[in-house]
């Protein structure tokens, strides 16, 4: 089974579960399995079109799915899937 690593900011929607084993064949199915187990997580990962939200970065092992087959990226049995939400903010340049 593949393992999904759930980032700390999203664990409040998974009862503090940090990782979950999934039997999915691709990233889309893995995320569906995750959000089926934790429905509150769905609105933070899936957009209104039913796709993985564009501000969510997903890596299978060390590869960004955007450089692979996106949501259809195949997930091998021992793969590790990392969900990395975008982080906004920072400091602005002071006005001169």
Short description:
The protein has one domain (2-85): Ubiquitin-like (UB roll). The chain is built from two helices and five strands; from the N terminus they run E-E-H-H-E-E-E.
Characterise this structure.
The protein has 96 residues and is an alpha+beta fold. It has one domain (2-85): Beta-grasp domain (Ubiquitin-like (UB roll)). Helix content is 19%, strand content 22%. It is built from 2 helices and 5 strands; from the N terminus they run E-E-H-H-E-E-E. It has a 5-stranded mixed sheet, with helices on one face. Strand 3 and strand 4 form a beta hairpin. Helix 1 crosses helix 2. The longest helix is centred in the middle third of the chain and has 11 residues, at 27-37.
Number of separate domains: 1
- Corresponding CATH superfamily: Beta-grasp domain
**In terms of quaternary structure, what is this?**
single chain
CATH fold-level topology: Ubiquitin-like (UB roll)
What strand line-up does the widest sheet have?
A: 2-1-5-3-4
Please give the count of helices: 2
Beta fraction of the residues?
15-25%
Overall mean pLDDT stands at 89
Element-level helix/strand string: EEHHEEE
CATH class: Alpha Beta
- How widely separated are the two ends? 55 Å
Query: How many strands appear in the DSSP assignment?
Result: 5
């Amino acid at each position: 089974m593949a393992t999904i690593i759930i980032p700390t900011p999203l664990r409040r929607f998974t009862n503090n579960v940090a990782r979950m084993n999934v039997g999915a064949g691709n990233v889309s199915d893995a995320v569906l399995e995750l959000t089926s187990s934790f429905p509150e997580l769905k609105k933070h990962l899936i957009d209104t079109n039913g796709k993985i939200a564009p501000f969510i970065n997903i890596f299978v092992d060390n590869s960004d799915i955007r450089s692979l087959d996106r949501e259809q990226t195949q997930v091998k049995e021992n793969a590790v899937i990392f969900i990395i939400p975008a982080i906004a903010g920072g400091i602005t340049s002071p006005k001169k």
